[in-house]
């Protein structure tokens, strides 16, 4: 987990962290921020790896997407109500699910994508693999090599 990685990083760099009093750290805030960073990094790298147009809905900061991705292929939309999101999903061929923080669970986006008839490309999850495996409706991307996504999209 990222918490274990954080603890290991502190242990491996004790000289750097010597000036920090561990009892004064706000761990819930620290881990929330770390999780937000991990999620954002995964999403940006996922979008960057795709060689076609990607529509993003619900971004609170569209300028960040334009800064870190190609604005010619990424279209950022305002947040929409769930009933409108269902209509968008029904018209979509593929739904992306970047949820690296849910390694033992899933996001409703996966199930909604299935219900709307779209193929779902998701970050890896033990829960999804154990309960759904791999089929034509659900594929996984590896955080080590996202290039395989484009070959999956071509099929």
Count of DSSP H/I helices: 8
General form: globular
Secondary structural class: alpha/beta
Q: Give a count of the beta strands, DSSP E runs of length 2 or more.
A: 5
Spans of 5+ residues with little confidence (pLDDT < 50)? none
Average pLDDT: 86
User: Percent of residues in helical segments?
Assistant: 40-55%
Report, as a whole number of angstroms, the end-to-end distance.
Answer: 33 Å
Order of helix and strand elements from N to C terminus: HHHEHEHEHEHEH
What is the makeup of the main sheet?
3 strands, parallel
- Spatial strand order of the main sheet: 3-4-5
Measured on Cα atoms, how large is the radius of gyration? 18 Å
Query: What is the percentage of strand-forming residues?
Result: 5-15%
Short description:
Helices cover 50% and strands 14% of the residues. By secondary structure, it is α/β, with parallel strands linked by helices.
Task: Describe the model.
It is built from eight helices and five strands. By secondary structure, it is α/β, with parallel strands linked by helices. It has a three-stranded parallel β-sheet, sandwiched between helices. A two-stranded parallel sheet has the order 1-2. Strand 1 (54-57), helix 4 (62-68) and strand 2 form a beta-alpha-beta unit. The model has no long low-confidence stretch (mean pLDDT 86).
């Amino acid at each position: 987990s990222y918490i274990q990685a954080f603890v290991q990083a502190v242990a491996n760099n004790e000289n750097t962290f010597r000036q920090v009093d561990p009892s004064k750290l706000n761990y819930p805030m620290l881990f929330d921020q770390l999780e937000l960073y991990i999620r954002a990094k995964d999403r940006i790298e996922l979008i960057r790896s795709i060689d076609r147009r990607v529509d993003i809905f619900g971004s609170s900061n569209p300028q960040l997407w334009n800064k870190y991705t190609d604005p010619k292929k990424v279209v950022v939309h305002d947040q929409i109500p769930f009933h409108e999101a269902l209509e968008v999903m029904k018209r979509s061929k593929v739904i992306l699910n970047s949820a690296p923080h849910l390694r033992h669970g899933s996001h409703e986006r996966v199930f909604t994508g299935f219900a709307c008839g779209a193929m779902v490309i998701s970050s890896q999850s033990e829960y999804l693999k154990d309960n759904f495996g791999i089929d034509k409706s659900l594929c996984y991307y590896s955080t080590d090599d996202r290039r395989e996504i484009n070959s999956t999209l071509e099929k």
